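Listing S7. Sequence submitted for prediction.
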Amino acid sequence: MIIFTDFHRLLADTHFFQVCRQSHMSRFGHLPEGSQDAAALSASSAATSAGDAADAKDAAEDAQVAAEAAKDAAETAKTAAETAKDDAEASKNAAATSETNAAASAETAKQYSGKPPKPQDGTWWVWDATQQKYVDTGIACDLVGPTGNGIDSFVLTSGDHMPGSTDVYTVTMTDGSTKEISVYNGKNGTGIGDVMGIAFDIEIPASGWINGKVTISDSRFIASARYKYFIDTYDECRDEVKESVIRPQDIKANGYLTFTSEFTPLTDVTVNILRVEVNGSGNTP
């Protein structure tokens, strides 16, 4: 069987076949009826095969074009992905660099804030964060401020300091100017007596606390309204006193002072006591 790959060639060959058929028939007479049908069927099959071949060729060409387009699209996508990856890496590196620079700037600012310029050897010296030391700017620091005005003399001009009177003082300034100041002398009053007192320390042992209480024995504790007690502690014991909530109680018997606490102290505590005695504060012994 002949397979035709070109439609025009098919038409020419078909025409040639018909001419040959007619010539044969003219020479040999009419072909038998069965032979004529077979020849016609062969011609039709050849034409159909030629059309199918042409369609297959077109489809193959279309498929090739689609494959080329898909390849180009894949290459483009690959290039875009690589570009995006490069951009992401660049952004990551830029962010890391910015973070490092920000941290360095913050540290530098911190250094400068704690190391202000200072005068030294007649010039100003400033802190250099790079060298980690003060450097000489060469700028002179021999600054002369304005002349001040102080007190040259303070003299009593009038008055004798008598209670209820006023004394006048003349103040002469270093620039030659003068000012007068009046001072009133208060009258003598009548008080209730002298104030006397003693100060001493006592130690509260951590082992002495029982059920949130401890009693300290000392002869300087006197149960009398004539005495007032001011109790404080030293800095090294202040946190322990505060956390344990240590409080003194009233002195109800001579020689004893009881303290209470909400939490048992873990260490010994030293407190200082100021006992003040006021004469004439009443008839209570």
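Caption to Listing S7: primary sequence and predicted structure tokens for the chain studied. The chain has a mean pLDDT of 78. The CA atoms of residues 240 and 265 lie 7 Å apart.
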